[in-house]
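Weekly modeling sync, notes
Attendees: S.R. (lead), two postdocs, one rotation student

Agenda item 3: backlog of single-chain predictions. S.R. asked that every request posted to the team notebook include the full sequence so nobody has to chase files. The rotation student volunteered to paste the first one in as an example of the format we agreed on. Action items at the bottom.

Example entry:
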Amino acid sequence: MRDDFTATTKRLLAERAGYRCSNPDCRKTTVGPSTADQAKSISQGVAAHICAAQDNGPRYNSEQTALQRKSASNGIWLCGACATLIDKNNGADFKESVLQIWKELHEEAVFSELSTGQSDIGLTGWCEEENGSWILRIKNPTTAPFLDCVARAYRVENFDEPFADIEVVFGTIPPRQTISDAVPYENLESSMFGHPVVEVEYTDVNGIDWLRERTGRIRKIEFRRPFD
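Predicted structure, as returned to the notebook:
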C-alpha cells in the first residue's frame, strides 16, 4: 500500500518551494496561465517522495512509519522532468541526502526572496558534465551586459566551505548570452552524487556589485574579493 501525500501536503510543498522546481540546476516555474482559456492554469509540478511511498521504491526507508512517509518532511517539490529523473535506476543516482540538500537550499532561497524582495535576475552559473570535464556555464538572460564576472565552483560536500575548489574569471558577459569554460573533472570530483554548486560575483553597468550565492539567492555586496 502506498503512503501518498494528501492534497494539503502537496499544496504545502508547492507553496514552500514558491511553485518552482527544487533542483538547483533547474528551478523551473511549475505553474502558469493557460493561453487557450483565461479561466484555466497549467501546472507541471510534482510533490515527489524523498524516500519512497512503498516497498522497493526509490530510496525506500523501512524504518519510516506510514505517517513519516506521507509527511511534508519526506517530500520535495519538483518539475515533472526532474521528478522522473530522480527516480531513474530506482533512485540510485539521487540519494536521500542530496534531495534533502536540494530542498533545504531551495526553501532558504525562496524565503530570502520573499523576505527581502530581492529578485531572481542577473547572472546564473551552473556546471554540466561533458566528455570527462566539468563545463562551467554563466548565463546572462537580460538585455544589459555584466562586467568583471568571476565564478567559483564547490564540490557538493563543500557547498558551505569559505573557499572554492575552483575559480574562473569570465570578465564581461554580453546580453542574452551564455559563456562556458571547461574545468578538469578531477578538480571538482565529488564523493557525493550531484553537480558542483556555483556562486557568481559581477558588476552591473551602474557599477553596483552583486553576488549570486550558492543557494541561488542574489544580493548586493559592498566588497568584492580580489581575483587574478
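Discussion: group reviewed the output briefly. Helices lie at 7-16, 66-69, 80-86, 96-116, 185-188.
Action items: rotation student to repeat for the remaining queue; S.R. to check formatting next week.
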